[in-house]
Structures are given as structure tokens and as C-alpha cells.
UniProtKB/TrEMBL annotation:
Pathway assigned to this chain's UniProt record: Amino-acid degradation; 4-aminobutanoate degradation
Entry keyword annotation includes Ribonucleoprotein: no
Alphabetical keyword list: Aminotransferase, Pyridoxal phosphate, Transferase
Name this polypeptide is given: (S)-3-amino-2-methylpropionate transaminase
Cofactor: pyridoxal 5'-phosphate
An individual GO BP term: gamma-aminobutyric acid metabolic process
Similarity comment: Belongs to the class-III pyridoxal-phosphate-dependent aminotransferase family.
């Protein structure tokens, strides 16, 4: 009896027996096939995908151009290992990434496997280039589950609890949370305050001359889709330039059209020294990269960077197809259209329910904060969980986020059709009503 003839219950039982419970599952159905923004399980039930494999599928499930490119590569070879014998796909993708990322300076690109691996290597090359050891990330930031990136990540449970000791010389700077600003401060006063807090951090916590890099998500992902003021991001960039610190934009979730631009950092009129990319880079295949200033990436000696599977030729073929699709189908522009439609539905729900707090959006990176009420803004994790569960039980893949688990985030593929989007939003409306 093959996998497709097994029942959902049989496979769920096997999952519980053979796979650690530490691997979480937001939806307990078993996927059979997927196209665009719809997944069908082995029993024929359809699910509209508002999760996109946590932001991995900006071009959707099984895009025909990606599938064609992958099949063509598989027929040639699977993996000679770039460290053993080079292949064209790695080189062509590196060139493409250097061209589409911001910055009018000489660049290089290092290819790897996962987002966490990209962040680790950004730290490595920054340390090598500067000769410094300290690393600064931000409160509420998320950068991965390896020891280094777990150390850089802010949320203790479930990501860090019981997994120490953590990597040394990692410090978390304050990051703005405009929704929670004190009522006594205007937006401008609050921005000035968080900029000053950031600068004070380098007096109170770590000296800037010991810092190799500052790593920032242009929009905090797991932290709850927190969008910082433009002036804050610019102040961080200026501080790094002033003190010889490598400024790294972690674009793993914000990249490849998600925010209505190729990269999230584009919205802040800032050019980072390095950018980390992954997730939607290869439409679901494991691939990541560090892209940026040549003098930084070229500071390492032969053999100091790379990995056995880094820059898989099959994943590179998928990524090259993804970049073509982004250009041909103008996905950044589509992101704005998709995001606006989701925001409009959330605004309707906000008018109807007092537990709907702030709606945040940059392109199709959309979130809504669930609170006790809009006066006290206290996080309501329980209601958030009920909404997400109802959605997942009734045909909509939906994720929560936020340090306190009270944010619903939307990462629908940018190629989603109006029919799929409307169907998903109808289920979302029912989820709010039946929480």
C-alpha cells in the first residue's frame, strides 16, 4: 500500500510515532498536490494557502516555469558539488542576485542551503572582514534555529528555551513597536526616542568598535510584522557607517517581491552592506544566499566558506526561473494589489470586532494584531489561536506570529487568483465570527 492509499489517520499516527513532537504542524492534513495558492489533501479536501510555507512561495505552488526548469536540470545532473566541480547555474544565479539587489558597487554572492545558514555566513564574513567579534540583532527579531541564529533570535519559547548555552558576543538592541508607543509621545517624538535608545545601547551594552555587524529584518517577521519608521532604519545605517560596522539586511522573509518591492529594505531608502536571502528565492527548494559588497565577501580565504550541498544546481535552476517570473509577471506590483485586498477585508473586520487591533501592511506582507480591546491593547493569544485553528480546520492555511502569539500574519502567494483570494477571505471572516 503506497502513501497515497493510506488514510489521513494512518499517516498522522505514523507521524506521531516516528517524528519528534518538537517539529510543529499547524495543519494536520496530508498534502497530495498543490497548484498556485491551493493545496489538496489525500482525501480531496482543498485548502487556500495564506501561509505560503512561511513566505516561501511568492510564485505559488508548482509554477509551471519552475517545474520545467527543475526537470530540465534533473535530466542533466543532480549535484557535482560546486566545491568539486563548478556548474553554470550557481555562477549565473550569483550574477543575477548581484544585479537585482540594491547598491551601485561591486558585489559578490555566496550560495548556501537555508536562511539560518545565510545569516550565520553573513556573521562569519563580517567578522572576518572587520576583525571584530560582537554581533547585534534586535528585540523581537528572528534569524533561525541554529546555535548562532538562535542566539540572535529574541523569542524564548519555543525557539530558545532549554537549548542553551548560546553563542557568545551576541547582543539584542531595542527595536521600535509603533503600535505600542506611549500615548504621551507623538509619532515623531517616539521615533526620536527609539533612535536615541538605539544609540544609548552602544554606550550601555556593547562598544561599537567591537561590533562586526548589525543584522536587521526590514520588517520583523516572526516578531509580528513590525514595520519600523523609515528614520529609524536610516539612523541604524548611518550609525553602522560611522563606526565601521557591517549593516546586514535579513531579507529572508521580506525578499522577492513580498513587500511590493524586490526587497523590503528598498522602502527605507537605505543600502545595506550585505543582504541575506532564502525562502521565496527558489520556490520551495532549499537555497539561500549572502549578497553584497565584494570587499566583505572576498575577505575569506579558499575553503572558509561553502558546504557540501550549498548552491544545489536543482535549486539554482528553480531560483533563476523565479527571478524571471518576478520580472515577467511583475510580482512586486501584484503584491500591492493582493495586500490591499487583504487589508480591506481586515478593515471590515476591525469595524465589526473590538478585539481587532492594529492592521499592518507593506505590500502583501500583512498582519493583524488581536487584543483584548483597542483601548488597553493587551495581547489576546487565546483568540488568535482559535481563529487560526478554525481557519485550518475549514480550508484555510493560516499562521500566527508575534512575541506574545497574538498576531495573525498573511503570506499568500503573490500569484493568488481573485477566486482563491476571495474564498480564503470568506473562510477568514467565518473564523473571526466563530472564534
Amino acid at each position: 500500500m503506497d502513501a497515497l492509499t493510506k488514510s489521513t489517520k494512518e499517516l498522522q499516527d505514523k507521524r506521531n510515532k516516528y517524528i519528534p513532537r518538537g517539529v510543529s504542524n499547524g495543519n494536520l492534513h496530508i498534502a497530495r498536490d498543490a497548484q498556485g495558492s491551493t493545496i489538496t489533501d489525500i482525501e480531496g479536501n482543498e485548502f487556500i494557502d495564506f501561509a505560503g510555507a512561511i513566505g516561501t512561495l511568492n510564485v505559488g505552488h508548482t509554477h509551471p516555469k519552475v517545474t520545467e526548469a527543475v526537470k530540465e536540470q534533473i535530466d542533466k545532473f543532480l549535484h557535482p558539488g560546486f566545491n568539486v566541480m563548478m556548474y553554470e547555474g550557481y555562477i549565473e544565479l550569483a550574477e543575477k542576485l548581484c544585479k537585482i539587489t540594491p547598491g551601485n558597487f561591486e558585489k559578490q554572492a555566496l550560495l548556501l542551503n537555508s536562511g539560518a545558514e545565510a545569516v550565520e555566513n553573513a556573521v562569519k564574513v563580517a567578522r572576518k572582514y572587520t576583525g571584530r567579534q560582537a554581533v547585534v540583532s534586535f528585540v523581537r527579531g528572528f534569524h533561525g534555529r541554529t546555535n548562532m541564529t538562535m542566539s540572535m533570535t529574541s523569542k524564548v519559547k519555543p525557539y530558545k528555551f532549554g537549548f542553551g548555552p548560546f553563542a557568545p558576543e551576541v547582543y539584542q538592541a531595542p527595536f521600535p513597536y509603533p503600535y505600542q508607543r506611549p500615548e504621551s509621545l507623538s509619532e515623531e517624538e517616539y521615533t526620536d526616542q527609539v533612535i536615541q535608545d538605539f544609540k544609548d545601547f552602544f554606550v550601555e551594552t556593547v562598544a561599537p568598535e567591537t561590533v562586526a555587524c548589525v543584522v536587521m529584518e526590514p520588517v520583523q517577521g516572526e516578531g509580528g510584522f513590525i514595520i519600523p519608521p523609515k528614520e529609524f532604519v536610516q539612523a541604524v545605517r548611518e550609525f553602522c557607517s560611522e563606526h565601521g560596522i557591517v549593516f546586514v539586511a535579513d531579507e529572508i522573509q521580506t525578499g522577492f517581491g513580498r513587500t511590493g518591492s524586490y526587497f523590503g529594505i528598498d522602502h527605507f531608502d537605505v543600502v545595506p552592506d550585505l543582504i541575506t536571502v532564502s525562502k521565496s528565492l527558489a520556490a520551495g527548494l532549499p537555497l539561500s544566499g549572502v549578497v553584497g559588497r565584494k570587499e566583505i565577501l572576498d575577505a575569506s580565504n579558499p575553503g572558509e566558506l561553502g558546504g557540501t550541498y550549498a548552491g544545489s544546481p536543482v535549486a539554482c535552476a528553480a531560483a533563476l526561473a523565479v527571478i524571471d517570473i518576478m520580472e515577467e509577471e511583475n510580482l512586486p506590483a501584484k503584491a500591492e494589489i493582493v495586500g490591499e485586498k487583504i487589508e480591506n477585508k481586515l478593515t471590515e473586520l476591525q469595524e465589526k470586532y473590538t478585539f481587532v487591533g492594529e492592521i499592518r501592511r507593506l505590500g502583501a506582507m500583512v498582519a493583524v494584531e488581536i487584543v483584548d480591546n483597542r483601548q488597553n491593547k493587551n495581547p489576546d493569544k487565546e483568540t488568535t489561536a482559535k481563529i487560526a485553528k478554525y481557519a485550518n480546520d475549514n480550508g484555510l492555511l493560516l499562521l500566527s506570529a508575534g512575541i506574545k502569539g497574538n498576531v495573525i500574519r498573511f503570506l499568500a502567494p503573490l500569484v493568488i487568483t481573485d477566486e482563491e483570494l476571495n474564498k480564503g477571505l470568506a473562510i477568514l471572516e467565518d473564523a473571526f465570527a466563530n472564534r
